[in-house]
Design a protein that fits this description.
mainly beta; six-stranded antiparallel beta sheet; globular; disordered C terminus; 1 helix; two-stranded antiparallel sheet
Amino acid sequence: MPDFHPKSYSVTSGEDCEGKVLSVMVTSMVRRDELTVFGSTVGLRVSLEIAADGTEEPVTYFLSRLEGERVWAIDAKFGSDGYPYYVRAFGERLSAVRTVVKPVAHILDDLARAQGLVENIGEQVPLVLAAHPPSAASFKPGASE
């Protein structure tokens, strides 16, 4: 499987003309299987940086999408100075789930497909992980295109 070299994506959040332009950089995407006190947690783990147009420093997010889930959930959000705005463990679903905006979710869905990590994924489509993921079931950050 060829290495993936992440690049910045520009997306607009919001449906109206007042939407914000966001710069999105996906820095990692991996399949993760974890045994927790609640049982087996299997899904995808993503880290990304998002900066609103006109801001210099991005905010870092850690997301997960567990097998069978229809949305990307925000597990953690850190400010550009490292301040932890919101933090929970990978795949923790005991509290209300916060999700990313649709344009960012579409980017992540496309990246998961391109990496061969999934058999099925999409907007409101339950995640089905690939039965035989690539041997390096992740993409490695590299130079931007």
